Amino acid sequence: MKKILTSFLVLVFPILFLVSLNLNLTDENLKKENEKEGYQSEGDIQKSAAYKEMHRAENSLTPDEKLNIWKQVEALPEENKSINLNNDWKSIGPYGIDEADGRRFSGRVLDLKHPTGNAGLRIASAMGGLWEYSIFIASPISDNLPTLSIGSFDSHPDSSDVIIIGTGEPRANIAFGLSRGTGMYKTTNKGSSWSQISLTPTPNNFHKIRYSINNKQIVFAATDIGLYKSTTGGNTFTLNRSGEYSDFIYDQNFPGTMFAAKMNEGLIHTTNYGETWDSAITGLPPDYIGDIKLDIAKTNSTILYASISSDTICPNTGGAIGMKVYKSTNSGFNGSD
């Protein structure tokens, strides 16, 4: 037994030595190559073009690139999408796109609404898709979409089976770890099938989508590209205003009247569903407005609320602006915190 063990060590040791030597040489060669390129530290190496190409973040993918990946997934043979005991290899998913460092985000609720009729509460999540809750049972609606990142959605006022979805988390184009989307989609059968709605240009993310309260043919969408408007019940959209809009709200007491919030600029106002806009809104901080969310009193349209968040340093206090809530009692034309 002792002779066998000795013989084994004699054979294995040279192999281990050669492997170790090869790894050291490889590391030394990589180090020399990095030094030639001017990269001295690990942080410098991560700045190299080669490193960035091999470690592309999910958010560096354009909407078209994401759609191309999804088309390749859909092209997989059906036998690879389900358990097949006669096949040694099978695809078990997931079919989404994870973050570059291996993290998978979920749990952030970006929109929720209870549609009319017998449908349950619907919740849109950052990386989990759109769900409907009925008697405490959750059912997925958007699994047939090429992305599970749902920025916002709305259901048709008369038919809960008709849903418009905007994909991509708000501010995903500037914030690390947030997922960009692949555009806007519509279903007329509660998610059994979806059709993509052409938007020019295609937004990376959606802040809000809502049907008009008084006109079911009017639908607005607030995105990182601008405000999109539909006059066809959500079948087609056109760009109404450019720039990133974080929110908008309809005045149900005065059809056609809306307020919209533009990132880092403030509020605008219309009385004809966006045919014309004015920006005569006063009382808000002029130089450091960030993300704005709006609400309006249903019983009194002259009362408007705006919550404003910003990381900008306030010149008066020297601290971060943080979040403040402003209230107007004359339809947004004067506000106070």
Task: Write up what this structure looks like.
With 337 residues, the protein is an alpha+beta fold. It contains four helices and 18 strands. The strands form five sheets. The protein has a four-stranded antiparallel sheet, with no helix packed on it. It has a four-stranded antiparallel sheet with strand order 5-6-7-8, with no helix packed on it. The chain is globular and about 70 Å long.
Structural class: alpha+beta
What is the β-strand count?
18
Strand coverage percent: 25-35%
Helix content: 10-25%
Topology:
Blueprint: H1 2-36, H2 42-45, H3 49-54, H4 63-74, E1 109-113, E2 121-125, E3 129-134, E4 137-140, E5 150-155, E6 163-167, E7 184-187, E8 195-197, E9 206-211, E10 219-223, E11 226-230, E12 238-242, E13 245-250, E14 258-262, E15 266-270, E16 291-296, E17 304-313, E18 320-328
Antiparallel strand pairs: 1-2, 2-3, 3-4, 5-6, 6-7, 7-8, 9-10, 10-11, 11-12, 13-14, 14-15, 16-17, 17-18
Short description:
The chain has 337 residues and is an alpha+beta fold.
Question: Tags for this entry?
Answer:
337 residues; single chain; alpha+beta; 4 helices; 18 strands; 4-stranded antiparallel β-sheet; globular
